[in-house]
Amino acid sequence: MTTTPAPTPSASAASADAGVEAAQAALAGEHACVYGYGVVGAHLPDGAEPAHAALAAHRSRRDELTALIGDAGADPVAAEPRYALPSPVTDEASAQALAVLLEERLGALYADVVGTATTPELREFAVRGVVMAAVQALAWGGAPTAFPGLDGRV
User: Membrane-spanning residues where (predicted)?
Assistant: First the structure.
């Protein structure tokens, strides 16, 4: 008896899936940043204007990325109701450390999108995301790196 092999996705379909999957991870990262900057801003003195500006930028990028994922035919990942912080945030220094960590993690997620994006729009968006995350990490006191988003990777 002969069986017909199950169809396998084409290379371009698999590539598109990987691009959408990476974009979904970056969107989840943007959701985490929106949450995290609420915590950061609560622990900064005098109105926390830099945290408010970063929060607005992440909300905007989240909304743009949501639209790009929807345009690709996927349902954008939703935000979690709450996020576990990697360490307690109790003062200005720990708030700034959280902001650096949020940006560094997000930069790595956007670097993954750059490597898997199948559309020029998504790739350009991701490149801008890597740059924005690197600049924000530096603004919060992070260390400069030669290849933002790729540090510590093989």
Answer: none
pTM of the complete model: 0.86
Helix-strand-coil split of the chain, %, nearest 5: 65, 0, 35
With beta carbons less than 8 A apart as the criterion, state whether 70 and 122 touch: no
The answer to whether the beta carbons of residues 68 and 23 sit under 8 Å apart is yes
Quick one: fold of 15-139? Answer: Ferritin (1.20.1260)
Pairwise CA distance, residues 73 & 111, whole Å: 22
pLDDT single digits (tens) 45-84: 875 789 999 999 999 999 999 999 999 999 999 999 999 9
- Residue range 90-112, pLDDT digits in tens: 999 999 999 999 999 999 999 99
> Pick from 58, 60, 57, 39: which is nearest to 48 by CA?
39
Beta strands in the chain (DSSP E): none
What are the domain boundaries of the chain? 15-139
